[in-house]
Amino acid sequence: MIDNPDLNDGSACLVIKESFGNAFIPFLVDHYDKVYVVDYRYFYKYSEYNNSIYQLVSENHVSDVIFVNNVEAMDSESKVSMMSEMFN
Asked: Is 40 within 8 Å of 86 (Cβ atoms)?
């Protein structure tokens, strides 16, 4: 989680990404109180949220979910499956 100390309005977004999304995240920090970042390839390691995007969003009052992935991520059955598992 990235915390913006200059903003205290409770706004929060979640970025679901792989390495291509890393360059985009700094552009969000000025616009949200908190930015949560999840790499879908390793989401199974986020045990504090029981591997559930819904729980992460609910517990942290996330209003915006942003997907930042390369084009091949949506063309690969295994990568689409990894992303889908987060929403079970």
From this structure: yes
